[in-house]
Each structure stands twice: as C-alpha cells, then as structure tokens.
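ok new one. same drill as before - structure tokens go in, u give me an amino acid for every spot. 363 of them this time. try not to just spam alanines like last time pls lmao
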C-alpha cells in the first residue's frame, strides 16, 4: 500500500486532500512557521492569521481569475446555510427566484427558498432519478426574477452541467461544492458562486462564497446577523471567529494548485482520470453507468452491476483492498467513486484493475 498505509478514499465528502498538503500541514502543525503555536491555536485577530486569510483569497483570485467587482468570503455553516442565505439576501425586488432541480442538493435549496418568496421550478430531472441535466432556454426564466439557481455538479447522482444556462440579466447563483477548482470557469457569468470546502478544497468547516458586489446589502433588517452577506463583506470574513484551520488548509490547497500549473492542469488530470474509469465502465459487461453520457461528472462516477447483492460484494471486497467508501449515496444505492482533484491517478488505476478482476471472478 501507499505511503503511511493510506487508503484510496472514494468518499463524496469529506474526501481526500493532496498528500503533499497534508505533509506540509503536519510539518507545521505544532509550530507554524516559527510562531511557536499551531494555526489551530492562533488568534484570528493575529497578524499571522490575517496573512493566512489574505494569501488564501489572493491565491484563489489568481487561480480562477476572479474579477475585482466580486467579493470572496470564507464562511461557516456549510452548503446548507447557503440554501438559506441566498434567498434571504437576493430576494430583493420582485421576491421571485427560478430554480433548476437536478438532484437532492438543488431540491433542498429550492425547498428552503420557497419559505421566503415566489419560487418557480423551471425544470427538474427528478422523474428520471436525476440521471440527466435538463436543457433550459433563456425564455424559461422569468425576466423579473431576482436570481436563478443551479447546482453545477450533482454529487449524489454523478451529473454535471455541460453548459451554463443563459439567464439574461437575471443573476445566476451556482452551488459548485463538488466540482469547484476542477475546471476553468468564467466567474463573470455568475452572480454568486459558492462551494462547501469538504468536497474538493479543504477539511469541513469553511464554505467559500464569491459574490458580485452589486448583490451585497439587500438582506432584510430582520435577517439573522450571521446570514447577511454584507456583514461578512464589511468585516473581511472576520465579523466573528472564522473557521481558521479550514481556511488555512484551503489556502495551502490553492498554493498547491498554482504550483502544479493551475486549474488548466488540474482539469486535464481530472479528465484523464474520469475518462479511464468511464471507458472501462462502458466496455464492461458487468458494470453500467447510471447517467446520460453527455452529463457525466468528472468528480462523482456512479455505476451499478444491476444486482444489489453483487454491488454489496464489490463494495466489501474493494474495502479489503484499501479502496473505501465506494457505496452509492444511501438514497440511490449502487456504487459511486468520488475521484476529486486529490484522488491520485494511481487510485483510479487501482480501482479499474480491481473492477476487472472482480468482473472476471464473478461472471
Ligand atoms: C455536500 C453538498 C452540499 C451540502 O453541504 P453541507 O456542507 O453538508 O451542508 C450542498 N451541495 C452540494 C453540491 C454538495 O455536494
């Protein structure tokens, strides 16, 4: 097995981090760069931590070319809190918002928004177990909607938007939790991009929010203070104690990505890894992919054998081989291999080799 007997962890999140980053964090764990303290113990008001968060933001801006009129926030509360923050802050004129529901997370976001305004379900692929991304045209969005909402990568089902919906002048909000930093994006096409870190960026605890500055400052005065984007914009994500350690590790991951050649290089690696796995699935007579090919995710690869008992056997035997968390989400069953940025190509190769062996032995 690999260094330190680490397994290949195919979990959908929390998930693997680059070993190089973990080693660097470990080397600095007790005494961060000669400060005599750990980042875990460090005051968020210290100049050392201010440097950590400033560098994290600067490096993220560089990685994905965030325009100057966008703010970057590092918040707590996970993706689930964003489901509430988005409507609480963006339902500012007509109180209308338009949602595309392509999976459980988008559906949760949609349901949460219905508490606060006139919410239209523009399209949904629920009737087909979210196995595809609906094609939505500009005229399906209400021109007076305060925003439109999508989830670009559907972690549970293994789909990814092959296009950015054209919403005209209506700001597009995107939950990118499970594909953030896996592909180049044009930030200027979005009003808000947000991503929980525990899928592709850092340990759980921090949620990254990128928000166009003209969308800040519209929360109702009754809005709970933490849920108002403006508070966090005004205070540089330090209105209260931020998730310091997760922000630090996120920053180290950003540095690592810049070092290897940025998102372009990362994306090429992701395409190669996912491509191999899908190619094998498509050639296999035992394993079948569960989603429409054009909409396949590079991050979450879902497949089945068609026989539940065989799926269980596969998952159990893979675990014995040091490949863990291959079970599909509890709501859908089957298998899901989450192969985020930090999954080494060797891990995908090992999985494919094991699948071939399993197929041969269980004909
Ligand atoms: C995991 C996930 C969420 C939920 O995140 P929490 O931090 O657990 O609230 C939301 N959206 C997507 C796409 C996810 O993968």
């Amino acid at each position: 097995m690999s260094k330190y007997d680490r397994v290949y962890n195919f979990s959908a999140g929390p998930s693997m981090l680059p070993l190089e980053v973990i080693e660097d964090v470990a080397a600095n764990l007790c005494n961060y760069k000669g400060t005599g303290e750990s980042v875990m113990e460090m005051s968020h008001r210290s100049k050392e931590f201010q440097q950590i968060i400033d560098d994290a933001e600067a490096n993220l801006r560089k990685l994905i070319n965030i325009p100057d009129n966008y703010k970057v926030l590092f918040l707590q509360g996970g993706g689930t809190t964003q489901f509430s923050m988005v409507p609480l802050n963006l339902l500012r004129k007509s109180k209308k918002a338009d949602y595309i529901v392509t999976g459980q997370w988008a559906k949760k976001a949609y349901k949460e928004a219905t508490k606060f305004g006139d919410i239209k379900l523009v399209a949904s692929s629920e009737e087909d177990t979210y196995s595809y991304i609906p094609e939505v045209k500009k005229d399906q969005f209400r021109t007076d909607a305060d925003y439109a909402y999508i989830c670009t990568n559907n972690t549970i089902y293994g789909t990814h938007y092959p296009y950015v919906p054209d919403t005209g002048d209506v700001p597009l909000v995107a939950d990118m939790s499970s594909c953030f930093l896996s592909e180049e994006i044009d930030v200027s096409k979005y009003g808000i991009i947000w991503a929980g870190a525990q899928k592709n960026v850092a340990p759980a605890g921090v949620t990254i929010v990128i928000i166009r500055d003209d969308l800040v400052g519209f929360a109702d005065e009754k809005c709970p203070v933490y849920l108002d984007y403006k508070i966090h914009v005004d205070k540089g994500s330090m209105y209260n104690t931020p998730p310091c350690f997760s922000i630090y590790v996120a920053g180290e991951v950003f540095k690592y990505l810049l070092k290897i050649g940025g998102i372009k290089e990362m994306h090429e690696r992701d395409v190669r890894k996912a491509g191999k796995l899908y190619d094998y699935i498509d050639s296999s007579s035992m394993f079948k992919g569960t989603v429409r090919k054009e909409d396949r995710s590079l991050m979450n690869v879902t497949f089945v054998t068609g026989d539940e008992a065989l799926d269980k056997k596969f998952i159990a035997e893979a675990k014995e081989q040091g490949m863990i968390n291959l079970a599909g989400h509890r709501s859908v069953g089957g298998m899901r291999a989450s192969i985020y940025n930090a999954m080494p190509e060797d891990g995908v190769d090992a999985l494919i080799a094991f699948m071939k062996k399993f197929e041969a032995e269980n004909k």
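The two ends are 28 Å apart (CA to CA). and btw The pocket of pyridoxal-5'-phosphate is lined by residues 13, 78-80, 105, 151, 155, 175, 177-178, 196, 199 (CB under 6 Å).
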